[in-house]
Design a protein that fits this description.
Helix 1 packs across helix 6 and helix 4 packs parallel to helix 5. Helices cover 38% and strands 24% of the residues. The chain starts with a strand and ends with a helix. It is of the alpha/beta class. The strands form two sheets. It has a nine-stranded mixed sheet, sandwiched between helices. The chain has a two-stranded parallel sheet with strand order 7-9.
């Protein structure tokens, strides 16, 4: 398959690129910084300069030409303020939704966050982040696209175990970015995940089985 990944240079996106490339699929990485190109190619992906914060949806749609699915794994990142949570974590996700619809790409996988809620209380940056992610999730559900929303718990850079727990509610915990990327790959392979939102944490079930059981 051909997959366009918003934020492919990020810690989850780069891992997903490697997994796709390892089995012969094509990964197109949408990132704002052209300096990322060499690393993306080294991971097995095709770099495309695309700034989802500043580009018009009409400019993004051609980047999705001949793509089978899109994955939104971009974000404003640590240290960013509330304004960028809205322009990137929400606005960037919505712009990719609009571009996917314009480009005829029906499959959209969202990397969200546990606790994402458009009505999350509080005015600190993390509360704004949860509201932005929650609003993006709600907009995706209403988009008419074939969506899946993945909400991992606290992320680590520990080596993946290949074992997770996935469900409507999994409680607090942590999960490696390796395992999140592997779960995203399983979601792309599993049509029964279309239309579903789920939380994801480390667990005792092999990733393909956990995803298939949703």
């Amino acid at each position: 398959m051909r997959v366009a990944i918003a934020g492919g240079h990020g810690k989850i996106g780069s891992r997903l690129i490697r997994l796709l490339a390892a089995r012969g699929d094509e990964a197109r990485s949408l990132d704002r910084n052209p300096a990322y190109g060499e690393e993306i190619r080294a991971a097995g992906g095709e770099p495309v300069v695309c700034d989802l914060e500043s580009a018009d949806p009409g400019e993004v749609a051609p980047v999705l030409d001949q793509v089978d699915a899109v994955v939104f794994s971009a974000g404003a990142g640590p240290g960013s303020g509330p304004d960028r949570k809205w322009t990137m974590d929400h606005g960037g996700a919505v712009k990719l939704i609009e571009a996917a619809r314009a480009g005829g790409v029906s499959r959209y996988v969202m990397v969200s966050s546990i606790g994402a809620d458009p009505d999350a209380p509080g005015e600190d940056t993390f509360a704004v982040y949860l509201r932005a992610k929650g609003r993006a999730d709600a907009d995706l559900r209403a988009s008419g696209l074939e969506f899946t929303i993945v909400r991992p718990v606290r992320l680590t850079d520990d080596p993946g175990t290949g074992m997770v727990a996935a469900g409507v509610s999994v409680g607090r915990g942590e999960i490696s970015r390796d395992d999140v990327a592997a779960a995203l790959l399983a979601v792309l392979d599993t049509p029964s995940t279309i239309g579903k939102s789920f939380e994801l944490t480390s667990g005792e079930t092999p990733i393909p089985d956990a995803i298939a059981a949703l």
